[in-house]
Structure formats: structure tokens, C-alpha cells
Specification:
heterodimer; A: about 230 residues; MetI-like fold; B: about 350 residues; Rossmann fold; six-stranded mixed beta sheet; about 25% helix
Chain lengths: ~230, ~350
């Protein structure tokens, strides 16, 4: 694989991983956020704490447990067996699972906050206007929580792009398959290829700045519309 | 009264430390006001009728069972044919005014729709800003949109929770005529929570008085306002309402004649057409008593009456009168009462010095 292709493969893999991870996170994070926002169960904060664990844990700890879960002797290995594989570790699917765990709090928290911000009233109004719970969720709760969805999606995407420890632990660094940008930069620095490291690192810097700026602008605009 | 034209409420339960045990029946016609001091459970009852809150008991509205715990029936709010106007307008900020109005309308099967968006928008004066954002409206305009939105859900029972309480004085004055207009043009039974005697006297047909979690009394407004136990609390502000019909206009003296069961009031000329029903408010302190029909007085409105009940309160007495079937209150001094021999059964004449026309 020539140098340019290797760089490009890392970029493409990273974007693919981030896109898939973000979509999965929105699908599973939304019901979790909804439940955390609406439930009156006493133990819901325990669930919230589990979701938030990746904020505190060193990524290598998370990666270590993920590796065991995904490996041949864990549930991941069993699932892989169904498809004729041996393990989910060191695969793209394994990376997605690890990234989803790692970025979950960044998606759940903003969406939960958004669901909580408008209180029960709009849903009560919807109910008195003949909207059942499912109808009210889609026609009222989701549109009102849109700023939270935007923030959650952007943070989930950006955080996945920027992860290192987890993907290194469970992905290894197979070019074109599990070698994402952050791992590639690490490898270039290790092997003293400063120019390539500069290109990727500089690109990440610009990307991170653009994401955060874009998010701040968008959030402000959405919040103004919903006020 | 039980049956297809009544609202029957039986609720017991506790919310935190607050215990509610409410039981009443009211006609499902006109406006039924739930009145009482704040914190007495009025809003709780309304939320239970809407299904937003569940206490133990049963609810039957116009012959339909909405809740009956004995039979395990509880309709969720979206399955009840109601409209609900909250204290705050609570418009959906992500929808335009039109989007808000259509929200309930679209969810009612077309066969059950009884009102058209354009008509309701005209009725409440919101046609001019259908395409605006709720955020750009004034408080009064928003609440008018909220009322229109509730009406467009074609409710069989309209629930209003102090719809004017969150508004400033000017907005209140702006909305009250719309509510009176609704009462006159649309025949939608309404449960109206209020702690404003003024709103109640203007709007209500039936009164349910609530105190500390239970129903104290329930009855037609004319009767309830003149009930001694309730009127007494009002003291000098006690009043009666009289429903009357416009029977004629006197061009020469610029007066309007309003007939009621006990006679005919003459008031300063109004623009009402002949035959129109109007409501009059008579304050107890504006009514005085004589034994004979006085002549040579400047007071125009004098009616024969019979004393019904007398309650003494320090130097004053509140007298409930039967004026040809319509109850009125008069506030007199205890000394006058003794001089005139005011006691139940005594025929007198009541002189009404001032009346206020409601609509």
C-alpha cells in the first residue's frame, strides 16, 4: 500500500466508523435518554451513572473490558461464531461496538437534557389534543428536543473520530480495517514520519475547530427558533 | 340530573400531604365554574377529569364512562373528547399558529369535527396571525390561540384552568368578551376553574364551590351566589346575578327594558337587540328595602319581594329575597332590620340603586 493510499484509507475508515457509530448511538441513545428523562424509577440514576462511566474511566480500561467481551471467549466471540468468525475483536464491527460504548454519554446526556428542558406540559397539551404517547413523542418531544439531537450527534461523531485508547485496545491497527486516524498518527510518530503525522494532526485540529464552531452556531440558531 | 346531560365526578385520593375527596354532579350545559381558594384542589379535579392525573373514583360525562375504578375503566387523556386550556397558553413553539390550531383538528376523525379552522380563528380574532410564530404574539393573543386550539379538537367537554390568571389586566379585559361570545355562540359544556368572583359572575351558569379538598356546595349560579353560607364570606361584596331578556328600548329617555321573572329592570340604553339574553349583577349593598312601594323616589327599579332568610353580622344584616322566583341580596343595617321587622316570610319592596350589565 503506498503512502497516499494508506493515509486516505485511515481517513475513510475513521469517517465510516464515526458515521456508523453516530447512527447506532442515535438509535439506542434516544430511548435511553427518553427513559432517563421521564422515568420516576428510583434506580434510574444508577443507569445514568453506568451510561456516564466512559467519561471517567481511562479509555484503556474500557478497551480492555471490551476486548474481553468481544474476544473468542466472550459474548462477542459467540456472536462471531454465528457468522462463522472467531472473534469480534480486531474487526470493524468490534470497533463500532467499542466506540458506541465509549461515546454513549456524549449522545445520551444532551438528548436527555433536551427532553427534560421542556417539562411535562407540552406532552400534556398533546395528550389533550388527541395525540397518543407515540404520536406525541414524534410530533412534539422530538422536534422540541432537536437542539439536543444535533449536539448529541455532533459530539458523538467528533468524539468517535478523536478516540484512541479504546480502538487501539480492541482494533489493534490493521491498515484499512481497524487503523483509524488517531492510531495512524501514533504509528507515524513512532516511526518518525513527521510530515505525515503533521498532515493528519493538523487536519484533525482544523476538523475539531470546525465541528465545535459549527455546533455552537447551529445550537444558537435552533434555540432562538424554539424560544 | 344523572344521565346524558350531566357531569358526575367522584374522586378520592392523596397528592403528597393533600387529601382530596370530591363528589359532585353538574349539568353538562353552559359553563360550570369550579371555585374556591387557591390550593383547594380545583386544578387537581380538572386534571383528573382530563385524565392527566389519576385519583381513585369514577367520572361520567354526558353518559360516557371515562373512569370507573370499580370496573377497571380508565380512558387515557388522548381518548377523551376534551379540550383543555391551561393557565399558561402552552403553545407548541416549533409550530406556527396555524400548526398549533391544526394539531388537534387533524387528530379528530373528520366525521366528528364540528368546527372549521377559519370560523374558530374568526371567533377568537386570531385570523390575522395564522402564519406567525407563537413567540411573536402578546400574552393575550397566545391565550386566544390556545383557546381556539382546544375548541378545534371538537370537545364534548371543554376544560379551562384559570385561563386568565397568567394574564395582565389589559389582556384579561381583552379576552373576557371572547369567552362571553363563545358562551353565547357555541354550545360546548365547559368546566371552568377560577378564583375570580368577577369572572364567575360574568360567565358561569352553575357553580361548584370547593374548599380544602372537598365540595362544599353545588348549584345554579343565581342560587349559589345568594346562599347565605357562601354570601356571608363576601360580606359587603356579596352579589346576585339576574338573567334577563331585552324587551324594549325607550328612545325618549334612552332606557332599555330587561325582563326577568320578578319584573322589569330599566337601565341606561344599550345596543342589544330585543330578545337578547343578558346577565345583570346586583350588589347586595346597592339594594335597599321598604315596606310599602315608595313613590316620589328617583329609584327606577323597585320590585315586590318576600324575605327568604336573614343573617346578622355585627351591625349589618344580609337579607336574601325572593323576587318572583329570582333570588336577590340586600345589605342593610341591623337597626333598619329591626325597625322594619325583617324576618323570613315578610313581604317587602326592594329598591335597586345600581345594576351592572354583564354582556
Amino acid at each position: 500500500m503506498d503512502d497516499g493510499a494508506e493515509l486516505w484509507a485511515a481517513v475513510r475508515l475513521t469517517v465510516e466508523l464515526a458515521v456508523v457509530t453516530t447512527l447506532v448511538l442515535l438509535v439506542i441513545g434516544t430511548p435511553i435518554a427518553w427513559w432517563l428523562a421521564r422515568s420516576r424509577a428510583a434506580w434510574k440514576e444508577a443507569v445514568a451513572a453506568v451510561v456516564a462511566l466512559p467519561l471517567v474511566l481511562p479509555p484503556t480500561v474500557l478497551g480492555f473490558y471490551a476486548l474481553i467481551l468481544l474476544g473468542p471467549d466472550g459474548p462477542g466471540g459467540w456472536v462471531a461464531g454465528l457468522f462463522g468468525g472467531r472473534s469480534l475483536a480486531f474487526t470493524f464491527e468490534g470497533l463500532v461496538i467499542g466506540s458506541v460504548l465509549y461515546s454513549l454519554p456524549f449522545v445520551v446526556q444532551p438528548i436527555r437534557n433536551a427532553f427534560e428542558s421542556f417539562g411535562p406540559r407540552p406532552l400534556e397539551v398533546a395528550a389533550t389534543l388527541r395525540a397518543g404517547p407515540r404520536d406525541a413523542f414524534w410530533s412534539v418531544a422530538v422536534p422540541l428536543a432537536r437542539p439536543g439531537f444535533v449536539t448529541g450527534a455532533v459530539l458523538g461523531f467528533a468524539h468517535t473520530v478523536g478516540e484512541f485508547g479504546v480502538v487501539l485496545m480492541i482494533g489493534g491497527g490493521i491498515p484499512g480495517e481497524t487503523k483509524v486516524l488517531s492510531v495512524a498518527i501514533y504509528d507515524y510518530v513512532e516511526t518518525l514520519q513527521w510530515t505525515k503525522a503533521h498532515m493528519l494532526a493538523g487536519g484533525m485540529l482544523v476538523f475539531a475547530f470546525a465541528v465545535i464552531l459549527g455546533m455552537l452556531v447551529l445550537e444558537k440558531r435552533l434555540a432562538r427558533r424554539l424560544r | 340530573m344523572s344521565g346524558p346531560s350531566s357531569i358526575e365526578v367522584r374522586l378520592t385520593g392523596a397528592l403528597g400531604t393533600f387529601a382530596l375527596a370530591a363528589e359532585f354532579e353538574a349539568p353538562a350545559t353552559g359553563i360550570v365554574a369550579l371555585v374556591g381558594p387557591s390550593g383547594c384542589g380545583k386544578t387537581t379535579i380538572l386534571r383528573c377529569v382530563a385524565g392527566l392525573l389519576r385519583l381513585h373514583g369514577s367520572l361520567r360525562v354526558r353518559g360516557e364512562v371515562w373512569q370507573d375504578d370499580a370496573r377497571g375503566i380508565f380512558l387515557p387523556p388522548h381518548a377523551r373528547p376534551i379540550g383543555y386550556v391551561f393557565q399558561e397558553p402552552s403553545l407548541f413553539p416549533h409550530l406556527s399558529v396555524r400548526g398549533n390550531l391544526e394539531f388537534g383538528l387533524r387528530r379528530v376523525p373528520s366525521a366528528e369535527r364540528r368546527l372549521r379552522l377559519e370560523d374558530v380563528a374568526d371567533l377568537l380574532g386570531v385570523s390575522g396571525f395564522l402564519d406567525r410564530d407563537p413567540a411573536s404574539l402578546s400574552g393575550g393573543q397566545r391565550q386566544r390561540v390556545a383557546i381556539a386550539r382546544a375548541l378545534l379538537a371538537s370537545p364534548r367537554l371543554l376544560l379551562m384552568d384559570e385561563p386568565l390568571a397568567s394574564l395582565d389586566r389589559a389582556s384579561k379585559r381583552e379576552i373576557l368578551p371572547y369567552l362571553e361570545h363563545l358562551r353565547a355562540t357555541l354550545d360546548i359544556p365547559t368546566l371552568y376553574v377560577s378564583h375570580s368572583p368577577d369572572e364567575v359572575a360574568r360567565l358561569a351558569d352553575h357553580l361548584v364551590s370547593i374548599g380544602a379538598g372537598s365540595v362544599r356546595a353545588s348549584g345554579p349560579i343565581a342560587e349559589m351566589l345568594t346562599r347565605m353560607d357562601l354570601a356571608r364570606e363576601q360580606g359587603a361584596d356579596a352579589e346576585a346575578v339576574v338573567d334577563a331578556t331585552v324587551t324594549g328600548h325607550d328612545a325618549e329617555f334612552e332606557l332599555t327594558a330587561l325582563a326577568f321573572s320578578g319584573g322589569t329592570f330599566l337601565v341606561t340604553r344599550t345596543a342589544h337587540p330585543i330578545g337578547q339574553r343578558v346577565r345583570l349583577r346586583v350588589l347586595a349593598r346597592d339594594a335597599s328595602l321598604t315596606l310599602e312601594h315608595q313613590t316620589g323616589t328617583s329609584i327606577l327599579n323597585i320590585f315586590p319581594a318576600v324575605v327568604d332568610e336573614v343573617v346578622t353580622d355585627g351591625a349589618s344584616q344580609t337579607v336574601r329575597l325572593d323576587v318572583g322566583g329570582t333570588p336577590l341580596l340586600a345589605r342593610i343595617t341591623r337597626k333598619s332590620g329591626a325597625t322594619l321587622g325583617i324576618e323570613p316570610g315578610r313581604p317587602v319592596h326592594v329598591q335597586v340603586k345600581a345594576v351592572a350589565l354583564v354582556d
